[in-house]
Every structure is written in C-alpha cells, then in structure tokens.
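Curious: explain these tokens?
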Amino acid sequence: MEKHCLINNKTISYTDRGSGKVIVLIHGYLETKEVWNNFAQKLSENFRVIAPDIPGHGNSNVIAETHDMDLMAETINLLLQELNIETCTIVGHSLGGYVMLAFAQLFPEKLESFVLLHSTVYADTDEKRKNRLREIEFIKQGKLALIVNTNLPKTFANNNVKNFSAQIEEMKSHTKKHNPEGVCALLRGMMKRPDRQELIKTFDKPMLFIFGERDNYIPIEMGTKMANLSKKINVEWLQNSGHMGFIEEESNSHNIIEKFVFFDNQ
C-alpha cells in the first residue's frame, strides 16, 4: 500500500512491507517505486522493505531545481528518521545507486551494508552530460514520452525485450506520473555527481555489486574495473540480464541479495 509523509513540506511517496532487518530499495531513472513491486513483496517475507519514489519521479514532489545526489540522500535519511529506522541496507538501482553512494558518503553510520545494482561509481563523461542536456531540451519541448519509449526498452538485454514487453509497458505507464520538471531536476543532479571511487576504496562495511553481462549501459570491462576497487566488494554477474536483473532474473537476484543480507552482512 502506498504511503506518504511530509519532509520539509514536500510529499514523499513510499511503500513499507514486512518486518525485520530493513532493506531500502531506491529505483532508477524514469522508474517509480512500483518497479520493485514483485521483488519487494518477495523480500518482505524475511525483511522490512521500504521503497520510496525519488523526488521528481512518481508521486514524490519536486523539491529543487537541481536534484543533486546529496540532496536526494538527505531526503532518504529524513524519510528513515520519520519511520524511526536507525540502520538499514540500501539497494540502489542505476540512478538509485548514485543516491545510495551519496548516502554512504554522508551517513555511513546508518548503513549496515549496501548493494550497487546495475550502477556505477564513476562521474558522467562529457558525452553523457551532453546526452542528459539533450534530454532536458526534449522534455522542455514536451517530449518526455519519446525519451521514455526510447530508453526503457534499452534497459533490458536486447534478446529480453520481447519476453518482457508486458513489464516494459507497465513501466511506461507509471512514467505518466512523473513531473517533467522533476525529471529535468534529476538529470541536472546526475550530471554534476562526483566520482565515488575513493568512497569505495575506504568503505569498511559489506558491499555487493551486481552487474548484467548483457547491460547496454555498463559494459563488462567497466563492471570488472569497479569490482577491483576494494577487496571488500562481493561481486555477482547475471548472465542473462541487461540493466534490469531484478526483473530479468528476479529469482536469482532475490537469492543473491537475501544471502548477502542474511549471511555476508554479519
């Protein structure tokens, strides 16, 4: 069931399932908390699972002209305070991974561990920034739907698009809730996010990185490079997944994360 709370007079929408150790699921760009529905329901059999809409997406309000990653992390922290949650494991998918890394930088004492799910510790390249600026211009021209229809299928492995067409269409339907100004605010925030390699090298709690071998956004060589940043990183590769392993290989992804939280995170 969807819930809401006011943080600095802005509405934050989230779901809250189950009980026990807390896992926070932070979705990616153009997604909403609903992308986690099946995955969160399965995890909630053994954990308390919180899944917010990142401000600017879904039913959470826009809170600034630029939604930089620190501001998003601070908002997640305030939500946890509202829910009286002292520590948790955060699973950050894609953009959600950028928010999670900012959270780890700002509030390391509140993390028991984290999972970087189809995401990167690196700052945007110049080419990526140009692409984000181009998307902002398209959105200002009223073409958010074009961006959605172009980008969301690419998040799945090329050979999985047909098999997961229903899930892709459902994801597209949820994007109708997005405030275009909020999407632009998040694009600006992603453009200015810093490199987090040093954080990974010095972070002293358990880390799990999950990559898809068929990811259209994170090549295998990039994932391998990230995995070698620290000996504390647990690494898992999903052979039949692109950028959406928690949907493309739902059962496998669930088992990997559950094992990590139960056993590796001790």
The longest strand covers residues 10-17. The beta strands are 2-7, 10-17, 22-26, 48-52, 88-93, 111-117, 207-212, 233-238. Residues 2-264 form a domain with the Rossmann fold fold (CATH 3.40.50.1820). The longest helix spans residues 126-140.
